[in-house]
Amino acid sequence: RAKAAGRGVFHFYDDALDDEIQRSLLLKRELPRAIKAGDFSLVFQPKIKLSNGAISGVEALARWPHATLQAISPGEFIPLAESTGQIVPLSEWIFEEALQTLASWRNTPLDGVSMAVNLSALLLKRNDLVDEVRWLLDRHSLDPALLELEITETAALENLDIAICQLNKLRELGVTIAIDDFGTGYSSLALATSLPADCLKIDLSFVAGMLNNGANAAAVNSTITLAHSLGIRTVAEGVETEEQLTYLQRQGCDEAQGYFFAKPLPKDEILDWHGTHAGRLLPAA
Ligand code: C2E
Ligand code: MG
Ligand code: MG
Ligand code: MG
């Protein structure tokens, strides 16, 4: 009986697993072609200063629009690109596009807004990272202080000594460092106190839960306290409601990012968005 019942079930899982493997093989094969063809794009999500509602920066997020395979999220293609080494050429493209976009905002209302780029674990380990970043900033005549690199706790932990050394060199250049998805790792406290960083990004899972889950609220509050006692900033990610925003303001969070303010937007829509929303982003007190 068990066998009969089990059979269909296993068959079902087999098919699902098979589809997943097929898809990942297909995507792995597609990646190099897509990178060469310039199929990727970047979208930019504003970060808002909670003291005055000004836009402090944007985060660049990669997208892979695909004609036949719909909705390939970065949560899917970034790990794939890391596993095949394709993350190196892909990141080259991402950095070039992000810095070119940042340079294009010179003498516009977005002049002085910073650009945050997510740095993959694999790049953090590379010897040429610091030189590449310096060269890119020079070539676009950009103030290094306008570039923020986001590093996840997991990426830093993979090779802590190298991470600390690289991040120190990047900060000597004038680039700022944010620890992304803060609080989701196993040794967040140790990392926050040993990594050279300018900002902790509170993971969106805590923000999503903080209004009805005491543990999530505790994580948010203590991250803000920790950051401030280290003399660094906090950014809350995934802010979707006014209630969440009000809570974060009361806790003294420095900046926020999320659908409440804006979804990640293509570069030609960011200027319009800023024109329409600047100075009107915080609800009247
Ligand atoms: P992340 O760096 O923590 O980025 C935040 C994610 O939250 C983004 O997902 C963003 O679109 C999403 N988000 C923003 N506001 C809200 C909100 O209010 N509600 C909800 N539910 N989500 C919100 P996305 O774009 O799918 O990126 C996922 C992850 O993929 C990123 O997490 C980052 O780790 C990675 N990633 C994205 N672009 C790049 C890239 O260019 N390079 C590298 N190395 N990783 C990237
Ligand atoms: Mg990020
Ligand atoms: Mg994050
Ligand atoms: Mg994340």
TrEMBL record:
Signal peptide: none
EAL domain ranges (all copies): 24-278
Entire-sequence positions represented here: 333 to 617 of 617
Domain of life of the native organism: Bacteria
Name by which UniProt lists this protein: EAL domain-containing protein
